[in-house]
Design brief:
Number of strands: 9
Shape: globular
CATH topology: Endonuclease, Chain A
Largest sheet: 9 strands, mixed
Number of domains: 1
Strand order of the largest sheet: 8-1-7-6-5-2-3-4-9
Strand content: 15-25%
CATH architecture: 2-Layer Sandwich
Structural class: alpha+beta
Distance between the termini: 35 Å
Amino acid sequence: MPIAITLRKHFSDSYYRDALVRALNSSDIDSAYIASGFFSDFTVELDDSAPDFGIGEQMKGKKVFLYGSYGEDASLRELRAALTRRGLKAYAYRLASPEPGDLELRWHAKVAVFLSGTCPVLAIVGSSNLTNPSMYGNSERRFTASPKRIQVEADTFYWLHSHMDAAQAMHDVFHYWGGGLLAPQIAFDHEKFDTEIEKLIESLHNNLLMYSWRDI
């Protein structure tokens, strides 16, 4: 049940992006359920600036379910269309608008859960939205000049040590640049803890789906 907590300090710290892309590249990870406060079509920028992290052929047929707040219809549709053009099976949902007199729930959580078949094997909980600022970095090009403004994000990663593809994806994320010297400390890095983390990830996934989502 490995756990890692990251705090983005540099332009090169693109752990959220790297985890999302590496996971969807894995042959035994089939789908991703991604909820975000905001969305934008980051695919073109990745193609231009970070081709190693583009949304490409190896992800064809993977399912991506996007969840956002009401008022995000346009950005959700734009990203869904961009992912679909690249061969993914993308779906988009928004939180139901509140009825008069109801409690106003506005989606702000940033959650991503990755499944192998029907089993959740990797989760990201944090502050990174599925937008250009979070998906843009230069972990693959150390000397690329950074933009003037960098989003400082904190994300927590949970994955099953015993699931080969999830473990390999996260190993790649934390060792792609710097041979692991720049990676955050990983705790509970043994499969004997997997039962507990599997319960946490599965509960997170189930709770996400319990909200009143509307297909857009």
